[in-house]
Amino acid sequence: MNPYLSRLQAYPFERLRQLFSSVTPNPAYSPISLGIGEPKHPTPQFIKDAYCAAIQNTAGLSGYPATTGEPALRNAIAQWFERRYGLQISATSQVLPINGSREALFALAQTVVDSGTTPAGGNPPAPYVVCPNPFYQIYEGAAFLAGAQPYFVNTLPERNFAQDWDSVPHAVWRNTQLLFVCSPGNPAGAVMPIDEWEKLFALSDQFGFVIASDECYSEIYFREEPPLGSLQAAAMLGRHDFRNLIAFSSLSKRSNVPGMRSGFCAGDAALIKQFLLYRTYHGSAMSPVVQSASTAAWNDEAHVVENRAQYRAKFAQITPMLAEVLDVALPDAGFYLWAKVKGSDTEFARDLLGTYNVTVLPGSYLARETPAGNPGAGRIRMALVAQTDECLEAAQRIVQFVKSRS
Questions:
Q1: What stretches of 169-262 show up as alpha helix (H) in DSSP?
Q2: SS3 of residue 27 by DSSP
């Protein structure tokens, strides 16, 4: 067996299942889950129609798809970049369809990390994969299974949950091969500003590491100005070749189609070429049926505006309610509320389920211990993905729960 498998930690939702194993939810209340970031808004009908039409096409399932994807899909993604960011990118050499951002974020580490033949912890040491803390656990697993060592950079609540890049030692940067960033962030929803990108690009130039930018929450935002994208930031800083930079996005949140597993990566043509080579062997081609539906989704913006309006209205109602009893504020973007609670985050989640049958995710499950502590401890993540009425009901129960503990 791959010896690195033993380094993987239980996924947050498995830890949540174990936490709740001894809890009997109060049957007087219907169950409401704010624990998983799974979009629950209805899938737009035109996307389902495009999917069904592709199935009816006699060629839809009768041949093997190319890993590069159909030109129509790559062109739709490139055109979306021009509309969204004002960027002109090559649909041929700088765009690659992926089966959701999760699998591609994982696979990129297997492509770019060179661990040599030295086992992790050996001499010389394994290369580093730097990632935010709290973080999406795929980053850590990707690092371990590529033979690298994850290095966690804590977020700073006093700086709108920005990563403390200045805390990373020179010796770590020198041995870093890959940096994962997430903007807008999960779970705090913070958007990285241009000066932060400038700092990371300078570090990448100095030490030669690749930057993988996870941007799957970019289309759900609460400010008037849409979130800055990594390729957009690169172009603003004169880096039009996007060297050592790949951005990842997905239709799951933008278009409410998590079951389609569809997204893209885009950026440095040299990296995309090598990533395509890896994926050709990996068997990562997207179904032609999914490609057809994805093309329709990327070509339409009206449903995205409507989806964003639903989230804005929902957060406008719920955030002030919870802010009366919890330390929480409207994020820059995303569909999570990242709230500070009194006492243990795991006890809060367990007792809330037992008392009011509402599920939230303990923040400590999304982070790792560092010398500066666990930045998720004492916090909870609430995914406001269900319809507004259900989220309002959950918020009302949480308010009652917090007041009863005071």
A1: 170-174, 194-207, 230-236, 251-255
A2: coil
CA angle 288, 294, 313 (to 5 degrees): 155
State how far Cα 9 lies from the chain centre. Answer: 18
Pairing relationship of beta strands 210-214 and 245-250 according to DSSP bridges: parallel
Write down the pTM of the prediction.
0.96
d(CA 293, CA 320): 37
Structure tokens at 131: 């990632």
Torsion of CA 43, 49, 52, 54, to 10 degrees: -120
Residue 338 exposure: Cα atoms within 13 Å on the Cβ side: 25
Decide which of 3.90.1150.10, 1.10.8.10, 3.40.190.10, 3.40.1440.10 is the CATH code for 3-42+303-405.
Answer: 3.90.1150.10
**Would you tell me how many other CB atoms lie within 10 Å of the CB of residue 42?**
12
Pick the CATH number of 46-300 from 3.30.1850.10, 3.20.20.370, 3.30.310.170, 3.40.640.10: 3.40.640.10
Delimiting residues of CATH 3.90.1150.10 domain(s) in the chain: 3-42+303-405
What Rg do the C-alpha atoms of the chain give, in angstroms? 21
CA nearest to 12, candidates 100, 135, 149, 162: 135
Identify the three-state secondary structure at position 190. coil
- In terms of Cβ atoms closer than 10 Å to its own Cβ (0-12, 13-18, 19+), residue 72 is middle
Single-letter code of the amino acid located at 133: N
Are the C-beta atoms of residues 90 and 328 closer than 8 Å to each other? no
Q: What angle do CA 397, 361, 181 make, to 5 degrees?
A: 135
The one-digit pLDDT tens for each residue of the chain (406 residues) are: 999 999 999 999 999 999 999 999 999 999 999 999 999 999 999 999 999 999 998 677 888 999 999 999 999 999 999 999 999 999 999 999 999 999 999 999 999 999 874 444 556 678 999 999 999 999 999 999 999 999 999 999 999 999 999 999 999 999 999 999 999 999 999 999 999 999 999 999 999 999 999 999 999 999 999 999 999 999 999 999 999 999 999 999 999 999 999 999 999 999 999 999 999 999 899 999 999 999 999 999 999 999 999 999 999 999 999 999 999 999 999 999 999 999 999 999 999 999 999 999 999 999 999 998 999 999 999 999 999 999 999 999 999 999 999 8
Q: What are phi and psi of 263, to 5 degrees?
A: -165, -160
